[in-house]
Design goal:
alpha+beta; Glucose Permease (Domain IIA); 2 domains; globular
Length: 272
């Protein structure tokens, strides 16, 4: 999605929300309310037209072979092995993105919490095996973006919390821009116009900063639950620019593993 559409969308939607809030609290003339409606409609049109302009995402290219971004036993969610765009949108360069959740080691006695209908509404980070797990460089690369100042919030894996996330928290983060959607994140330049993005990292866990050179397998940070995330997990994608606002998603495959489908577990130590 071209950058101007992102900027105009956020301006118009922010103006619309502000005018509606003002009308509900102090009351506004009909003309101002009509302006709020028009601004909201304009924001929706910007999003639709901008998303249409991004339909040329470079998903038909040959998949780039890289190392996996995590180590140990994990499961995939929202995988490009099942559909593209994997997250239902081309925005933020995530046409081929994948989400990863850590699975407990066999015999550990731990379980990854499932989705709850009503209770508990939220869960602490420590309930999830992924929280604090190392996130690894997928290739030799240069760090071009690194941000780990945002807080890690509790899980949103119940229906009430998920609705809060979708109807309010996610929308507010979207208005704030890419940084607030991704949470703490790292972007690597792999060369040849290819960039790797890791999102939702743990606050204060980054071991690299922009300009650093890293090698494949080197720890970059830890898995967290920052940004637009429902539980601790690693969001990973390849894209053709360092700015997710303007990037197109790129296909990839992990050396020795391929690309697991949603719900499929894999172990980087055994390749299956």
């Amino acid at each position: 999605m071209p950058k101007p559409f992102h900027v105009l969308y956020r301006i118009l939607l922010t103006a619309s929300f502000a005018m509606i809030a003002a009308d509900l609290t102090v009351g506004l003339p009909f003309g101002m309310v009509w302006f709020a409606v028009c601004a909201g409609t304009g924001a929706a049109l910007c999003l639709a037209v901008g998303a249409g302009a991004a339909r040329g995402a470079r998903t038909g290219e040959t998949a780039r072979t890289i190392d996996p971004p995590v180590g140990g036993r994990w499961s995939a969610l929202n995988s490009p092995a099942d559909r593209v765009p994997s997250h239902g949108t081309h925005r933020y360069g995530q046409a081929c993105a994948i989400d990863l959740v850590a699975e407990p080691e066999p015999g550990s006695g731990r379980q990854r919490p499932g989705f709850a209908a009503l209770w508990p509404l939220t869960r602490p980070h420590s309930d999830f095996p992924a929280y604090g797990a190392p996130v690894l460089a997928v290739a030799d690369a240069t760090v071009v973006r690194a941000d780990d100042r945002q807080r890690d919030h509790r899980s949103r894996n119940s229906w009430p919390a998920a609705l809060w996330q979708m109807l309010l928290a996610g929308g507010v983060r979207d208005l704030g821009g890419t940084r607030f959607v991704l949470g703490n994140h790292v972007v690597l330049d792999l060369g040849d116009g290819v960039h790797a993005l890791y999102a939702h990292l743990r606050r204060g866990s980054l071991t690299v900063r922009p300009g650093d050179r890293v090698t494949a397998g080197q720890p970059l940070a830890e898995c967290g639950n920052s940004g637009n995330s429902t539980e601790p997990h690693v969001h990973f994608q390849l894209m053709d620019a360092p700015d997710p606002d303007v990037a197109h998603g790129l296909p990839f495959t992990w050396r020795g593993i391929g690309i697991p489908a949603a719900g499929e577990a894999f172990d980087t130590r055994t390749g299956v």
